[in-house]
Amino acid sequence: MTFRQFAFNNVFRNKRIYAAYFLSSLFSVLVFFVYAIFAFHPGLSKINPSVAVGLHLAEGIIYVFSFIFVLVSMSAFLKSRKKEFGLMVMLGMTNQQLRRMVFLENVLIGFSATVSGIAVGLVFAKLILMAAQSILSLDQALPFYLPWQAVLLTFSAFLILFIVISFFTVSILKGNKLIDLIKGSSAPKKEPKASIVLSILAALLLVVGYAIALVVREEQVVIAMIPVTILVIIGTYFLFTQLSVFTINRLKERKSIFWKKTNLVLFSDLAYRMKDNARAFFFVAIVSTVAFSAIGSLVGFRSMLTSALVNDKPFALEYISNQGNKQESEHIQAIEKELTPINYKKGSIEIKHAPVKNEDGDSTEWAIVPQSEYNQLARIAGETDKQVNLKSNEAVLLYFQNSFSNLPDLPKKVSRQIGEQNVQQIDIQLTNVIGTFEDKFVVSDELFKKLESTKTDTYYAFQVENWKSTVDSGKKLMKDMGVVETSGHDMNNMFQFSSLAYDWNIINQGYGAVLFIGLFIGAVFFVAAGSFLYFRLYADLEDEKQKFSMIGKLGLTDKELSKILTVQLALLFFVPILVAVIHGAVALTALQHMFDFNLFKSSASVLGTFTAVQLVYFLFIRFNYIRKIKESI
């Protein structure tokens, strides 16, 4: 057997531990490769060039994170194999051969993960392209192509990464004495102690950070973001390194708890494991918080913008014709022709602009609309509660409503002079029934006919029950009318046309790209966080086997063993995830206060999905972990 074969066999002998590391590395390569497929796709660069730039940026983030992840993971593996390395040195292996063996093992795993990740990406490339087309709401299909640029970039980038990591991990073995290698993890540990001051400080920092995040509103959230983040990060570190150990030691001192049933075995080394894994738990909590917050924010932002758009526009299509527009009749006929196959309702309202004086004598030009036409629009929009019933000398102020506006602090009843007519304003109403983005007065038809105006506009509204089906119609009409898509106006500003479905689709496309990038980056973070927990648990597996083997001889039943291991694994597995969920919930609540928009639904869906996946991951690990412990007894 050659030396290379020996290194190759070592990897397969430790496949239980290396499996999670290999699969996690494969997933990182796969996500990087998927981004590369999209970034180099000739169709996507033509449809939306900004998405390609974002994908390349995401690749950089994943690459840097993968470097840290692989380095930390390999360091954990090497420490768990110290006894094995010590035995090899005793049998005559030189330090140079030991380092060479570790180097070859790392390169082998890295090469296999890179090739496998690219292969899986190629197999599912078409499905991924179809999924991306749906997420990005693209109008054109993304055909499959041979992504040789993506293959070359991914292969070279990750091969270099694993080679560099191999050099780093080899350096970890330098300076280790034979006695240290032989002892491995069985070397006696000092009893874990925690500082009362630092434990209190951890709780205080977290409470203060949460309080500030939940109290601040609007632009104050941005100002408080950095100090709150610093407080929470420091508090989280001391939570795992100090407060958790302090709490466990306090519980051990209470005989009513410590001596109850199997708690003696449960708490005996829980403090040691919390202390040993504190940094890993801290890393998992922070990484998971970033994933929760980023994805929750992206989902929330898209939900907020699309909801605001739908709430602000009650009609599928809107057309505003300014005074002097000679194409009005032609455009209205074109809209009606386009909607002919669809069941729609049409409404229109004449808008006069006239001077309005208040009780102080100040005069301002306002938009004035007639009662009958306004009530017709409100009925078509399904907002019959917004209809008014006015006498000849009465008026209602229509305050334009958007999703972020509140009723102004103005007197509802006041005398005014509209044109030459004295009227009594009897109410103020929040409404978006007339989408001209201006405040208006609605008056009786009789009074409206008497008014002389400085200019007169006409607003047309077309209501379609299934308004999302009008995307293509809206796009075609905008093109035929020569409307500037970013503003909805024509070049001469004589008319304005807007399509709710088209605007909704544009927002979904823009945020779909960001969400697509964020989901995959969050998934990489999440898989890495779960893998860290997996590595830490299995690094101590041999010691756990010996411990429970000895306890089993004293009469520990299978049911008691399962209970102890389940509680211990749940604590080690879910405490950092629970901390991350709390951090993420507070961060998303602060974001909600910033925009005064309810993000509970989107936040709950993100946090709930991640927690559910983590629960499945835990059950899988628990089953295998308990099975391996029982096999050793």
Estimate the global geometry from the Cα principal axes.
elongated
Radius of gyration: 33 Å
Number of strands: 9
What share of the residues does DSSP label as strand, in percent? 5-15%
What count of helical segments does DSSP give? 23
Multimeric organization: single chain
Largest sheet: 6 strands, mixed, barrel
- Which percent bin holds the helix content? 55-70%
Q: Which spans have pLDDT < 50 for at least 5 consecutive residues? A: none
Separation of the first and last Cα atoms: 34 Å
- Taking all residues together, what is the mean pLDDT? 79
Structural class: alpha+beta
The side-by-side strand order for the widest beta sheet comes to 2-3-7-4-6-5
